[in-house]
Amino acid sequence: MRHDTIVFDIETIPDAEASKRLLNQPELKTLAARDALGEYFLERTGGKSDFPRQPFHQIVAISYAHLVHEKGENGHEIILKQITSGGETSSDEKALLERFFHIIESRAPQLVSYNGRGFDIPVLKYRAMVHEISCPRWFSEGDKWNNYDTRYSSTYHLDLLEAFSDYGASARCSLHEVATTFQIPGKLDTAGDQVRAMFEAGNIAAIRNYCETDVCSTLLLYLRWQRFNGGLSEPAYSRAMLGLFHYLQHESETRPHLLEFLHQWQQLSKIAEGDSL
Questions:
Q1: N or C: which terminus of the chain has fewer CB atoms within 10 Å of its end residue's CB?
Q2: What tens digit of pLDDT does each residue of 15-29 get?
Q3: Does any domain span residue 56?
Q4: What is the pLDDT of residues 202-249, one digit of tens each?
Q5: What is the CATH number of the domain that holds 75?
Q6: Could you tell me if 218 and 112 are in contact, meaning their C-beta atoms sit under 8 angstroms apart?
Q7: SS3 of the chain
Q8: Domain span including residue 44
Q9: What is the C-alpha to C-alpha distance for residues 124 and 276, in angstroms, rounded to an integer?
């Protein structure tokens, strides 16, 4: 088991400049280029989807929860260090990617995602190459059976969508669907299809906040998975949940989106301050 775990999520918009090059229409305005990219993929899929393929997603937020694994009284313990977003609201895509891959280079953590193998990781790798970013440790860490690109090993990357669906043997459910089944918050008042409008309105902070609440949901799903598979004993699981609860309480003084998530969590799980989680 890795000492560090990074539970992460990304938010993206269509890459207008790539759209202009793909369509050979350099004269297109930015908004029109994003629209045209959707029309291109709608045509390519026979009218089924206007969602761009992974190389054409410009990353506008990368959020994560940093966890560390320690030995405790009841075996393995998971301790939450922080929930944050990379860079600043003014950071460009290259800076966000450099920060993310620096974490890989410096810590080689376990990554935890929801549909990361199908979307987030390919986007991160494509966009790193767009900006000529290097990350040798991504390819040198681990061995043939355990590395960042191995599908059936969770040592370096645990995609919860894959784990929950037995790698596609059963239905692949959305994060929101699974979260509501487990009585934890899924999507709040924002959805992924609103990110472009928020970006074009200049509301980068709202995108980062939304991404962080998705990370909170993914973190709770991860803890539930750890309890189910025996990675956490019942006392250690309760302490990890309580650690998140107290972290959200503390941070909510200056981060209202985390307060909203906490309230939703309390309502769904019928917990109150001081209750056992």
A1: N
A2: 999 999 999 999 999
A3: yes
A4: 999 999 999 999 999 999 999 999 999 999 999 999 999 999 999 999
A5: 3.30.420.10
A6: yes
A7: CCCEEEEEEEEEEECHHHHHHHHCCCCCCHHHHHHHHHHHHHHHCCCCCCCCCHHHEEEEEEEEEEEEEEEECCEEEEEEEEEEECCCCCCCHHHHHHHHHHHHHHHCCEEEECCHHHHHHHHHHHHHHHCCCCCCHHHHCCCCCCCCCCCCCCCCEEEHHHHHCCCCCCCCCCHHHHHHHCCCCCCCCCCHHHHHHHHHCCCHHHHHHHHHHHHHHHHHHHHHHHHHCCCCCHHHHHHHHHHHHHHHHHHCCCCHHHHHHHHHHHHHHCCCCCCCC
A8: 4-233
A9: 38
User: Comparing 274 with 56, which gets the higher pLDDT?
Assistant: 56
Residue 218, both tokens: 């993914």
Average pLDDT over residues 174-203: 89
Q: Which two tokens stand for residue 53?
A: 């393929």
Say if residue 276's pLDDT is above 70.
no
Tokens of 46: 């026979």
Judge whether 125 lies within some domain: yes
* Cα–Cα distance measured from residue 72 to residue 102, given in angstroms and rounded to the nearest whole number: 29
Residue 254 belongs to some domain of the structure: no
Tally of domains in the chain: 1
The alpha carbon torsion through 237, 188, 127, 117 (nearest 10 deg) reads: 50
Residue 275 lies in a domain: no
Cα separation, 180 vs 165, in Å, equals 16
Segment 91-147, tens digit of pLDDT: 999 999 999 999 999 999 999 999 999 999 999 999 999 999 999 999 999 999 999
